[in-house]
TrEMBL record:
Pfam annotation, one family: SIMPL
Species of origin: Acidimangrovimonas pyrenivorans
Keywords linked to the UniProt accession: Signal
Domain of life of the native organism: Bacteria
InterPro entries reported in the protein's UniProt record: 26kDa_periplasmic_antigen, SIMPL/DUF541
Segment forming the signal sequence: 1-29
Record bears the keyword Repeat: no
Name of protein: SIMPL domain-containing protein
């Protein structure tokens, strides 16, 4: 194919014009897509504690009986426990505050010498009830009356708060204040300015309370049981994350 001199001149001019359509200078990315600079943070844990006098007690007590046969052991146990339940009612303990927490019947074994053979010589029956006592000033007298009625085992005594909500709120407030104080102290030591709260999380932890060890009571108590109620401790823990101002 042949082109005239005039057509060659037009093609040459178009070829020279095409590069002019490409924008001059480097291509810049959209500034909105650039990664943001990571902001510094301070993470602290604060704890708050509140101590208060308890207003209720939970006691686990019961009856243990032995007999030659299983039936006799259970019969004696049921009869003795009925007297204990009547004693609870007489002490003004409401039915909602009494719950059966353990019932057991076990053989009593004895090793026969010299053969070493084991044989059953009797049975042991036990029944436990967990009781909430809401009048602490009567706790000693209640325990004494229950022992007089036939309770011969006390498995545990724990003090508590019937409505712990307000105390938990107070402990949480103290925990938040402690966390903020620590964060401010750390920021000042690091030479930075403390910023807004990014996140906060909480969790309650109950302090362990002294418990009465399991003890048999073969003989009736002649005087009200002395009880020291002390204090109940409630604690709250919070974890807070603060921003560091740029």
């Amino acid at each position: 194919m042949r082109f005239s001199s005039s057509r060659l001149a037009v093609l040459f001019v178009v070829a020279l014009a095409l590069p002019l359509a490409v924008p001059a200078g480097p291509v810049r990315a959209d500034s909105s897509q650039a990664p943001a600079k990571a902001q510094g943070r301070i993470t602290v844990t604060g704890r708050g504690h509140v101590a208060a006098a308890p207003d209720m007690a939970t006691v686990t007590l019961g009856v243990t009986t032995e007999a030659k046969t299983a039936k006799a052991a259970m019969t004696a146990n049921s009869s003795q426990l009925e007297r204990v339940m009547a004693g609870l009612e007489g002490a003004g303990i409401a039915a909602r505050d009494i719950q059966t927490s353990g019932l057991a019947l076990n053989p009593r074994w004895q090793t026969v010498k010299p053969s070493g053979e084991r044989k059953i010589t009797g049975f042991v029956a036990s029944n436990r009830v967990t009781v909430r006592v809401r009048q602490l000033d009567e706790l000693g007298s209640v325990l004494d009356s229950l022992v007089q009625a036939g309770a011969n085992t006390v498995d545990g005594l724990d003090f508590g708060i019937a409505k712990p909500g307000p105390l938990q709120d107070e402990a949480q407030q103290k925990a938040v204040k402690e966390a903020r104080r620590k964060a401010q102290l750390m920021a000042e030591a690091a030479g930075v300015t403390l910023g807004r709260v990014i996140s906060i999380g909480d969790g309650y932890v109950s302090e362990p309370q002294p418990m009465m060890r399991s003890a048999g009571m073969a003989e009736p108590i002649s005087a009200p049981v002395p009880v020291a109620q002390g204090e109940v401790n409630l604690s709250a823990t919070v974890t807070m994350v603060f921003a560091i101002k740029p």
